[in-house]
């Protein structure tokens, strides 16, 4: 049986730069980002496809919170989301910030830039915690 790397990340058996976590999902910086702040949002329970999730609406609500939280922090012009599942067979959503004046999605980051993700992850964790608290009326 093939081990799912995303399930391993949820179980804390594989490293990831986690920026958000709640009872339903986990968001972390993509290992091979298409732009600065590219996130993977995954359900904590293994589903092959997004549409198999019984609580898909809650999942996309979390995606919206993440997007609203990262745009002002990263200075992104906008964010796109996409569902994939060909490389890793675990439901996930790409959350990809776009910087019209700087980087296009086709311009991949170099491995040396990926190492800067610790600081980026910490910055996003703080911003997203604030966004979730404000959205839930706990501020």
Characterise the protein shown here.
The chain is globular and about 40 Å long. Strand 1 and strand 2 form a beta hairpin. It contains four helices and five strands, in the order H-E-E-E-H-E-E-H-H. It has one domain: HIT family, subunit A (2-Layer Sandwich). The chain is an alpha+beta fold. The longest helix has 19 residues. Strands 1-2-3-5-4 form a five-stranded antiparallel beta sheet.
Short description:
35% of the residues lie in helices and 20% in strands.
Note the main sheet: 5 strands, antiparallel
Strand content: 15-25%
Low-confidence stretches: none
Strand order of the largest sheet: 1-2-3-5-4
- The structural domain count equals 1
- Secondary structure category: alpha+beta
Write down how many β-strands occur, each being a DSSP E stretch of 2 or more residues: 5
* Spatial extent as radius of gyration: 14 Å
Q: Count of helical segments?
A: 4
The shape is globular
CATH topology: HIT family, subunit A
Q: Look at the structure and name the CATH superfamily.
A: HIT-like
CATH level-two architecture: 2-Layer Sandwich
Q: What is the helix fraction of residues, given as a range?
A: 25-40%
Along the chain, the helix and strand elements come as HEEEHEEHH
* pLDDT averaged residue by residue: 84
| Termini separation | 45 Å
CATH class: Alpha Beta
């Amino acid at each position: 049986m093939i081990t799912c790397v995303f399930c391993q990340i949820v179980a804390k058996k594989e490293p990831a730069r986690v920026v958000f976590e709640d009872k339903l999902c986990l968001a972390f910086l993509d290992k091979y980002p298409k732009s600065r702040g590219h996130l993977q949002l995954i359900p904590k329970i293994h589903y092959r496809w997004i549409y198999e999730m019984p609580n898909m609406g809650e999942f996309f609500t979390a995606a919206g919170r993440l997007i609203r939280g990262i745009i002002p922090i990263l200075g992104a012009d906008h964010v796109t989301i996409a569902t994939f599942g060909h490389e890793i067979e675990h439901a996930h959503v790409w959350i990809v910030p776009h910087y019209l004046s700087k980087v296009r999605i086709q311009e991949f980051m170099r491995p040396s830039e990926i190492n800067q993700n610790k600081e980026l992850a910490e910055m996003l964790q703080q911003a997203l915690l604030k966004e979730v608290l404000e959205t839930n009326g706990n501020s």
